Amino acid sequence: MLLKIQGGKTISGVHAVPGNKNAVLPMIAASLLTAEPVTLTNVPAISDVSTMLDAARSFGTKVTRDVKAGTVTLVSPKLKTAKISAELASKIRTSFLFAGPLLARVGRASLPPPGGDAIGHRRLDTHFAGFKALGAKAVAGRKTLRFKGELKGARILLDEASVMATENILMASVLAKGRTVIYNAACEPHIVDLANMLNLMGAKITGAGTNLISIEGVETLAECTARVGCDYIEAGSYVAAAAVTGGEILLTGIDPEPFAVMEGAFKRFGVTWTIDAKEKTLRYIPKKRLKMRYDLGDVIPSVSDGPWPAFPSDMMSVLIVLATQTRGTCLFFEKMFESRLYFVDSLRQMGAKIVQCDPHRVVVTGPSQLYAGSFTSPDIRAGIALVIAALAAKGLSTINNAKVIDRGYVAVEENLKALGANIERK
Predict the structure, then answer these.
(1) Residue closest to 121 by CA, chosen among 340, 405, 342
(2) If I label 423, which of 181, 185, 211, 266 is the partner at 20 to 30 A Cα–Cα?
(3) Model's pTM, two decimal places?
(4) How are strands ordered across the β-sheet holding 396-400?
(5) Do 10 and 33 share a domain, yes or no?
(6) What is the pLDDT of residue 129?
(7) Residue among 48, 54, 66, 117 flagged as catalytic
(8) 207, 227, 247: which is the final residue of a domain?
(9) CB 404, CB 385: distance < 8 Å
(10) DSSP string, 147-166
């Protein structure tokens, strides 16, 4: 499956931002914590959601989905198994998020090592340490990871602010006896979405969105209807597509809070937006040209990622493409994943002026005229970055392995075509 993109078209118009991929996947896993119906709204129509729902079905969950309405109802009156197949687990890293709910609900879980994007080593040690602190026994085999035990509240200091470990431990602890306190917890907006959903189900969680989360265990959880927050990563990608092609874009259905974290980095490149919190819209209007804002003393700036509220790693690939079209020089420091920046080889083939210092750092000087070529999408975020680069390039580009982009972006060719792109899926 591939995308063919004729560059040189301006991306402008109105785009409805879907639900957050990184929020909905743990929320699907959390539905296993109750026998009663759980309804999720604003669910994005992406392939990772379909895979996660298939995984939920494998445990005996009944799934009712209205893709057009963006709703999913999950009912798990009885879990028929505490295992997940290697085939399903290999497709998506968040399959491992079922470990916490299974432990909490039936006292055991057996899962293969999870799959997902090959962007670097992503350790599971923090999950294991958290489950053990709650009283579970854990065995890590080469092909199967097993957990078993009755959970009790505990004071847990995470050795890293891991998003998935925070989510897994949070879900495991809501039905544990007593009080659990998670120190050095991840603070991302999708942690807040998950905690809000669990509280609607009857959990007692405070502190989500900070690095100290407290949970008072309850005996059971009940039905709820919870909304998935907006995908601010997708929103930022569409802003970048408009910026590199000289277009104007209005995003609807946004939640304003996450954009406060991203706007500082975008401003470095002359990209500013206005947000109407009441209408939940974000508007980007282009200036005459994109120009780098240097640090005091005319020092070359740097953009680095990190745990929230640092700039999100998932936006680094897109911002590098934006830098290729911005006058000036910038250092990008990818601190979290050692393989995320390898895609810049494709950008250099397109004509971008990029020096890769090491697996974690690249220096970009712009603006560069990009030229079309044929490239392969290595992961979700690099895939959309290559699409954006192709939109700004001269000529007809081909993006192979486009199905990986579908894991995180809703109908990307249809949405871009509606905004003026000359793009076709083969």
Answers:
(1) 340
(2) 266
(3) 0.94
(4) 374-376, 396-400, 2-6, 422-425
(5) no
(6) 94
(7) 117
(8) 227
(9) no
(10) EE---B--EEE-SS--HHHH
